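Run log // design_07
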């Protein structure tokens, strides 16, 4: 069935009230649209954990930096609505910019997520996570979900949103959902649409490289020398034509650098192929 489309806050609030009065648990899946199988997997994940699933489609201007792809970010609403109908999503909030930012842009009141937001992607995309946290908090307040689902591909984003929910005592549960990949292992992303066919084939090297980093660490009898292991992997990607922003191993819990005692780790990479910036990660145990 087609999802009910909400464009303004009042209609959304009225629906939200009806669901609450019926005692139904609501899961939120925030997106920027251009939905692919990864997003549809998030909806399926949400459906297993809630009575109602509400998606949002909003290309958030405040999380794009100058010179990034805000203008060319693909906007495909008719296709997105058809895809949401196929997976039985109950509702979709498609706000105009002034429904999210009635105070204008840049937003007057913002969420500053702290040091975690200045590392990794945050170091290469200044202000990005402030924009993400600010819009996500506004979406939470407008939709009042019981739980919200985020893809683990954006691992740093997921941690920042979890941290925001804990620090601001938000009354909802944040869940991460596994990364969806194509047959070659490339993590699904709307930005994959920018890649040529040849680049798309090469892009699978991101995940393969992370797998090699993890295998090396797991089979080594010595504690891993992360800078050396990651440096080699970075060179391998550069040889394939990537411009690497970072390739690193961190602690899963807080993305700090691991000590010899840490076991739950994640290898993360961000790299450009042509003009397309891609990210990927791989969680593992030592
Ligand atoms: O991951 C995304 O698509 C976006 O960062 C999000 C969470 C929808 C906020 O705009």
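design_07 sequence
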């Amino acid at each position: 069935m087609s999802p009910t489309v909400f464009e303004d806050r009042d209609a959304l609030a009225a629906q939200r009230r009806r669901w609450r009065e019926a005692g139904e648990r609501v899961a939120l899946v925030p997106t920027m649209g251009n939905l692919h199988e990864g997003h549809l997997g998030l909806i399926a994940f949400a459906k297993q954990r809630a009575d109602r699933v509400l998606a949002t489609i909003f290309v958030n201007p405040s999380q794009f930096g100058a010179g990034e792809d805000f203008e060319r970010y693909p906007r495909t609403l008719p296709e997105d609505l058809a895809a949401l109908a196929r997976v039985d999503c109950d509702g979709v909030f498609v706000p105009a910019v002034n429904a999210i930012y009635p105070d204008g842009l840049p937003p007057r009141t913002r969420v500053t997520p702290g040091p975690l937001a200045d590392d990794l992607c945050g170091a290469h995309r200044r202000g990005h996570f402030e924009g993400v946290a600010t819009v996500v908090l506004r979406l939470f307040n407008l939709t009042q979900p019981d739980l919200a689902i985020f893809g683990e591909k954006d691992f740093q984003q997921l941690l920042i949103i979890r941290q925001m929910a804990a620090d601001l005592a938000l009354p909802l549960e944040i869940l991460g959902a596994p990364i969806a990949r194509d047959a070659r292992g490339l993590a699904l992303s709307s930005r994959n649409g920018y890649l040529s066919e040849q680049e798309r084939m090469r892009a699978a090297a991101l995940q393969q490289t992370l797998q090699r980093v993890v295998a090396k660490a797991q089979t080594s009898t010595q504690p891993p020398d992360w800078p050396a292991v990651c440096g080699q992997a970075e060179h391998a990607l550069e040889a394939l034509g990537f411009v690497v922003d970072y390739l690193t191993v961190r602690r899963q819990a807080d993305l700090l650098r691991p000590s010899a005692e840490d076991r739950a780790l994640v290898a993360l990479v961000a790299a450009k192929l042509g003009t397309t910036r891609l990210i990927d990660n791989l969680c593992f145990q030592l």
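The chain has two domains: 4-177, 190-281.
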